[in-house]
Write a structure and sequence with these properties.
The chain contains twelve helices and 14 strands. The chain is α/β, with parallel strands linked by helices. Strands 2-1-3-12-11-4-5-10-8-9 form a ten-stranded mixed beta sheet, sandwiched between helices. It is globular, with a radius of gyration of 20 Å. The chain binds adenosine-5'-triphosphate.
Length: 352
């Protein structure tokens, strides 16, 4: 029987509440699909600053590296707002991504049927459902390029190597092969030299994936097409900065921040799985947080790191079913049952 070692980084705010529900669901899936999970916990973010003085202790990096995968809740909160920039909770997040070599960020933007009314986009544009996967390069480009400032100017540099583009392109093509075999590469090749290298490299990699239908789109057009006709997209691959912006746009189309999962992957099996939302300090400890984004992150982990696709599908189906009747306050609709964070975890387990 397969046994997986999972490190839990519960973090701050609602982090512990939502991760506890995700663990419950993972345990239930393990029982049903015949595998076992061993957990270890480590500190990241504000709780790590309180306990050790730094947002990313060495011990946390070591534990994560020694595990099959990592589940993260959320970090940050007003308590640590006065920390200097390099010692803020968010610095811990950037630090762990770097330390684990997580260069690919996967953000699905999915609308579950029962939540269609949460989308700001008209019904006839969304259709029966929407399911886009954005693959964002996470460790290169302008966020990490050379920067500087003098008396009256400042500059940042967008720089990509062929190797950096190749590895993210392969993640995206592999993803497209597992989905509808359609990939859109987004760039600004009409203006930027780095985008021209990006496009040429993606075309070169495409020769290894003859079954995938590849098209290219300028980022400004993509921003428009996402709201005009989101159904045209299956997998989108793009640079760090364009992915940052487009994935937030795509998540707004889905409507509810408490529902969206994400994964950050290195070349190997190890991944870091987390909800896209933050630590929601305004509702922390009240028991009303929506744990579904974290539960759906566990489903992604089962699919992309642990090779348990059936368990992943079962969790996603259970979530869709529970949403027909039960909702946490953030996605509540008249006539349905209003449930707590913990009750939502129990309902998904029962449906599994
Ligand atoms: P960050 O900068 O870390 O993203 P933020 O405060 O801008 O922090 P969130 O923490 O994601 O963003 O919270 C934004 C709003 O969404 C808050 O009002 C929060 O209560 C709500 N929210 C976020 N996540 C959830 C959740 N899982 N369940 C219910 N409400 C949530």
């Amino acid at each position: 029987m397969a046994n997986y070692k999972i490190t839990l980084l519960k973090g701050d705010g609602i982090g512990p509440e939502i991760v506890n529900q995700a663990v419950k669901v993972l345990d239930k899936a393990a029982e049903k699909f015949d595998f076992t999970v061993e957990y270890d916990e480590a500190l990241l973010g504000g709780c790590a600053i309180d306990a050790t003085g730094v947002p990313l202790p060495e011990e946390t990096v070591a534990k994560c590296k020694a595990s099959d995968s990592v589940i993260l809740g959320a970090v940050g909160g007003p308590k640590w707002d006065n920390q200097p920039g390099n010692n803020r909770p968010e610095a811990g997040l950037l630090g762990i991504r770097g330390a684990l070599g997580l260069f690919a960020n996967l953000r699905p933007s999915v609308i579950f049927g029962p939540l269609k009314s949460a989308s700001p986009i008209k019904d006839e544009i969304i259709g029966d459902n929407m399911d886009i996967m954005i693959v964002r390069e996470l460790t290169g480009g302008i966020y990490f390029g050379e920067r500087g400032r003098d008396d009256d100017s400042a500059w940042d540099t967008e720089k990509y190597s062929v190797a950096e583009v190749e590895r993210i392109a392969r993640v995206a093509f592999d993803m497209a092969m597992k989905r509808n075999k359609k990939l859109t590469s987004v760039d600004k090749a009409n203006v930027l030299e780095s985008s021209r290298l990006w496009r040429q490299t993606v075309i070169n990699v495409s020769k290894d994936y003859p079954e995938v239908e590849l098209n290219h789109m300028y980022v400004d057009n993509c921003a428009m097409q996402l709201v005009r006709n989101p159904k045209q997209f299956d997998v989108i691959v793009t640079s760090n900065i364009f992915g940052d912006i487009l994935s937030d746009e795509a998540s707004m189309i889905a409507g509810s921040i408490g529902m969206l999962a994400s994964a950050s992957l290195s070349g190997g099996k190890l991944g870091l799985y987390e909800p896209i939302h933050g630590s929601a300090p305004d509702i922390a400890g009240k028991g009303i947080a929506n744990p579904l984004a974290t539960i759906l992150s566990v489903a992604m982990m089962l699919r992309y790191s642990l090779a348990q696709p059936e368990a992943a599908e079962a969790i996603e189906a259970a979530v869709a079913k529970v949403l027909e009747t039960d909702r946490t306050p953030d996605i509540y609709e008249e006539g349905l049952n209003k449930v707590s964070c913990e009750e939502m975890g129990d309902l998904v387990c029962a449906q599994l």
